[in-house]
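Dear Dr. H.,

I hope your travels went smoothly. While you were away I took the liberty of generating a structure for the chain from your last submission, since the lab meeting agenda had it listed for discussion. I wanted you to have the full record in hand beforehand rather than looking at slides cold. The sequence, exactly as received, is reproduced here:
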Amino acid sequence: MTAIGDQPPVPQPLLEVEGLTKYFSTPSALGLPGVGARPPVRAVDGISFSVNAGETLGLVGETGCGKSTAGRAILQLLPPTAGSVRFEGVELTALSRRELRKTRRRMQMIFQDPYASLNPRMTIGETIVESLEVHDVLPPRDRQDRVRELLGLVGLDSRFVDRYPHEFSGGQRQRVGIARALAVEPRLVVADEPISALDVSIQAQVINLLEDLQDRFELTYLFIAHDLAVVRHFSDRVAVMYLGKIVELADRADLYSRPLHPYTQALFSAVPVPDPHAEQRRRRIILSGDVPSPVNPPSGCRFRTRCWKAQDICREIEPPLTPHGNGHVAACHFPG
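The corresponding predicted structure, in token form, is as follows:
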């Protein structure tokens, strides 16, 4: 029992990311080691955030901003260049391969492309059983029953267990991918644009399935997407990425009603509103120029080359993520 006047303990985040960086080396112009070397691609450049148990954090941004790379680096599918990733209080970057394999049972990934993420030479039953075998989940005699149970959970007929991926539609394949991720009973699921390759008519079904599974198994999601309407429906908090950096992070309702970073404002201005009168009154923000190269990003604020608010300070000093109340942070010298 908490004593009168005492504050209840603050729960520790399930996932804590600090200064996560992932650079990719580029081949030299002459193809020779050390000759004509080029600077690295700064795909993810020092991002920090946390995710609480049972929460869904949406990670949004333009194609190429580093969202998917960040998700893979968090799960150590890509070794980070620098930074810290703590899951359940354990520093993942310091684990050996054997220790990491044990931890991976509690954190899984749903991949973007349901066509490329399944082995075409394995039945879906073999695909799901493989996860159980790798992590030594359940006695071998019980694994087939577990596979059929999982197929039922994701809305597929258990009789499909001996079919191959080419016999399924894209939506059905993604359901198989979800079943595979759930097979080892994870706590954290990184969903890397899980509906972007699906027909619009199927996307809502998959989103509803993910919500139902979260409620049933108390899952925590890092939901990577570029569809802002889906993220608004599905996420508790939203982080906005631009050119390898998080430029704004806030509660869903606060972010959509009060975006502070110019890039976030431009993104939201492009989202259709289901009200013809409101749509006519809205001002669409058209960004000039192209996204700069992650090989040679602009000095100071990385968005300044496309920002209508940019001033000299934006060229000279990189704006830090600054709090604006209620957990809302934005990296801008002139927010609002």
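Two observations you may find useful: DSSP finds eleven helices and twelve strands in the chain. The domain at 14-24+39-106+188-195+220-336 is CATH 3.40.50.300 (Rossmann fold).

With kind regards,
E. W.
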